[in-house]
C-alpha cells in the first residue's frame, strides 16, 4: 500500500508505484475526492482502480454530513452471485457447454433485451414512495432477471477440485441509472457556494435535506432489486441445465455488492462509506477476473485501513473504445480459445488483454482478502 498526499486528505492506494503510470485521470479524481467538503479520514483506492464518472471505480469515500450519488454510481447494486453446484467438470464436454450456453441465452435476456412480459418474484411486491421507482414499476417487472451488457456476464466455472460453479455479474439495470441521474440532478440543485465542490460531478445531498433519506431508500431498493434479479437469473440457469439433461443442486451460494453506500463505524466515527466498484471485505467475497480469466472466492479480512473494503475485480487496463479499436477478430478468438464463447465481430472490450492481471490484483491486496477458491472459466454468456 502506498500513500499519496496531494489533497486535503491522504489517498491510500493498494498498489505499487509502477501501477500508477497511465492512471493520471483516475488519480486526479481521487485528489478531487480528498478535497471534498464531506470527505473524512482518507480516500482508499483498490488495486483495480481506474477512471470513472466523477470518482474512480475501485474507490472508497468515507463521508459525514451527506451522500454523493456519483460516488455510488449509476448501476446501483451491481454485484456478483456465485453458486457451487454438485456437478463435476468431467460431466461437461465442450459440446454440452455450447448447448448450455445457447439454452441460457434463450432463458436470460442479455444486453438491452427485457422479458416480453412481467415476471414473478417476491421482490416485486415491495414498494417505496419514490418518484422514480413509482414511474418504473412496469419496467422493473420486465427487467428483473435480465443480464444487461458491458462487463456483465454469466460464467460456468470449475474450482481446484473440479466442482462446477455458476457466477452471475449484473446490477439494477436501467432502474439504478434513473435513480442515480435523478438524485444527482437534485444534488446539483441543492449545491450552493457553501459546498465548495471540487467538481460538479461530486455534488452531494446534505443529510439535512429530505432528498438525502429519499436517495438512500431508493438506493437500498435498487440493491434489493439487483439481488432479486441475480437470484431469478440463477433459477433460469438451473432450468437451462435441467433442460439440457444436467440438473444440479446448489451446495453454497455467495453474494456481494460493489456499488453502494452504508453507515459504518471506523475508529469511533460513524461514516457513510461509499463503495464504487469495491466490495465490503467481510465473510466470503467474490473477486472476478476479466472474461476468460480466473475468478476468486476470498475470505474478507475486515481491514479497517481500507474501510473494510477489497477490489471488485481485475480493473480495466485500456478503455472500451481503445480495446475495440486495437484488437483484431483473430486476436479475440485466440484469446478466448480455451472457453466456450461466441466472439462477436467488433466487440473486443471485455477481452483479457483489456484488463489488469487478476492474479497480481489478488496479491496486491493480501492484507485485505485471503483466496479460498480459484475458479477457471469453462463457458461465458454475455450481452
Give your account of this protein's structure.
The protein is an alpha+beta fold and 383 residues long. It has helices at 24-34, 94-107, 131-135, 137-143, 173-190, 210-243, 320-326, 329-335, 358-364, and strands spanning 2-4, 11-13, 39-50, 57-63, 66-67, 79-88, 153-158, 163-170, 205-206, 250-257, 259-266, 269-276, 278-280, 282-287, 295-301, 309-311, 369-382. Helix 5 (173-190) runs antiparallel to helix 6 (210-243). The longest helix has 34 residues, at 210-243. The chain starts with a strand and ends with a strand.
Total of DSSP H or I helical runs spanning 4+ residues: 9
Shape: globular
Main beta sheet: strand number and arrangement? 7 strands, antiparallel
Rg, rounded, reads: 20 Å
Structural class: alpha+beta
Taking pLDDT < 50 over at least 5 consecutive residues as the criterion, the unreliable ranges are: none
Provide the CATH topology.
tRNA-splicing ligase RtcB
Could you spell the SSE succession in H and E letters? EEHEEEEHHHEEHEHEEEEEEEHHHE
Strand residues, percent: 25-35%
Could you give the distance between the termini? Answer: 36 Å
Strand order of the largest sheet: 10-6-8-7-17-15-14
User: Which CATH class?
Assistant: Alpha Beta
Would you identify the CATH architecture?
Answer: Alpha-Beta Complex
Amino acid at each position: 500500500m502506498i500513500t499519496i498526499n496531494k489533497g486535503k486528505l491522504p489517498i491510500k492506494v493498494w498498489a505499487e508505484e509502477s501501477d500508477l503510470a497511465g492512471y493520471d485521470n483516475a488519480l486526479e479524481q481521487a485528489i478531487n475526492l480528498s478535497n471534498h467538503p464531506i470527505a473524512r479520514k482518507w480516500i482508499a483506492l483498490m488495486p483495480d482502480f481506474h477512471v470513472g464518472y466523477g470518482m474512480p471505480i475501485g474507490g472508497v469515500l468515507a463521508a459525514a454530513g451527506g451522500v454523493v450519488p456519483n460516488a455510488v454510481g449509476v448501476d446501483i447494486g451491481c454485484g456478483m452471485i456465485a453458486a457451487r453446484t454438485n456437478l463435476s467438470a468431467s460431466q461437461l464436454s465442450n459440446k454440452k457447454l455450447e448447448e448450455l450456453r445457447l439454452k441460457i441465452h434463450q432463458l436470460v435476456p442479455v444486453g438491452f433485451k427485457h422479458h416480453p412480459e412481467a415476471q414473478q418474484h417476491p421482490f416485486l411486491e415491495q414498494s417505496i414512495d419514490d418518484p422514480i421507482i413509482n414511474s418504473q414499476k412496469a419496467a422493473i417487472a420486465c427487467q428483473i432477471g435480465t443480464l444487461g451488457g458491458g462487463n456483465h456476464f454469466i460464467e460456468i466455472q470449475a474450482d481446484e477440485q473440479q466442482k462446477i460453479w455458476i457466477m452471475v455479474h449484473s446490477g439494477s439495470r436501467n432502474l439504478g441509472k434513473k435513480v442515480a441521474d435523478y438524485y444527482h440532478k437534485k444534488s446539483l440543485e441543492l449545491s450552493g457556494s457553501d459546498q465548495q465542490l471540487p467538481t460538479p460531478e461530486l455534488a452531494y445531498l446534505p443529510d439535512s435535506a429530505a432528498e438525502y433519506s429519499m436517495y438512500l431508500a431508493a438506493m437500498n431498493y435498487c440493491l434489493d432489486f439487483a439481488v432479486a434479479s441475480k437470484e431469478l437469473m440463477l433459477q433460469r440457469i438451473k432450468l437451462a441445465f435441467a433442460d439440457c439433461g444436467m440438473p444440479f443442486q446448489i451446495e453454497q451460494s455467495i453474494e456481494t455488492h460493489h456499488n453502494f453506500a452504508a453507515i459504518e463505524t471506523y475508529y469511533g466515527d460513524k461514516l457513510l462509506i461509499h463503495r464504487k466498484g469495491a466490495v465490503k471485505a467481510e465473510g466470503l467475497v467474490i473477486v472476478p477476473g476479466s472474461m476468460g480469466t480466473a475468478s476468486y472466492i476470498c475470505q474478507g479480512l475486515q481491514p479497517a485501513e481500507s474501510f473494510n473494503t477489497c477490489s471488485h475485480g481485475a480493473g480495466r487496463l485500456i478503455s472500451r473504445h481503445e480495446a475495440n479499436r486495437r484488437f483484431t477478430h483473430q486476436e479475440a478468438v485466440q484469446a478466448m480459445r480455451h472457453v466456450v464463447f461466441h466472439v462477436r465481430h467488433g466487440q473486443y472490450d471485455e477481452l483479457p488483454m483489456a484488463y489488469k492481471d487478476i492474479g497480481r490484483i489478488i496479491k496486491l491486496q493480501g492484507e485485505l482478502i485471503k483466496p479460498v477458491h480459484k475458479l477457471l472459466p469453462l463457458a461465458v454468456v454475455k450481452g
